[in-house]
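Would you kindly consider the sequence and fold I have copied below?
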Amino acid sequence: MTFYYSKSQPGFYTREMHGDAMPKDAVPITDEEYHALYKELAKGKMLQSDHRGYPIAIDRPPITPEQWTEIHLRQRRALIIESLVKSTPLQDAVDLERATDEEKQRLKAWKLYRIKLSRIEQQSGFPTKIDWPKAPEATSWATYP
């Protein structure tokens, strides 16, 4: 089977799988080149095209501070959403005056957790190093600071 690589639509292609849908700029590569490139991808490298459109494996560029910020703020949003899902029934119980003392403590722990999450940008290592707070259920809620 002959493999092809496209610079315009980065990826590997074969006539058997892609037929006429293969990109027009796809260039043939040998089976050995294909397997050697996949080994490099498994090591964390990425593909780029040389000046002729043939694939070469290169080191990934380092993540920029802006990219770290985006990654960590996205992670924070996911953790806050998860905490809201877990704490909303507790808040409902408090609002309806049906909460036990334990539920009130658990709600307080979730709120403290969200406060800590909201302050990750104030950490000295931000955005490249984050000391993520532990969720209350991962600790004892009764001792959550």
About this structure: The longest helix spans residues 65-95. Helices lie at 15-18, 31-42, 65-95, 101-118. The radius of gyration is 25 Å. Residues 22 and 78 are 38 Å apart (CA to CA).
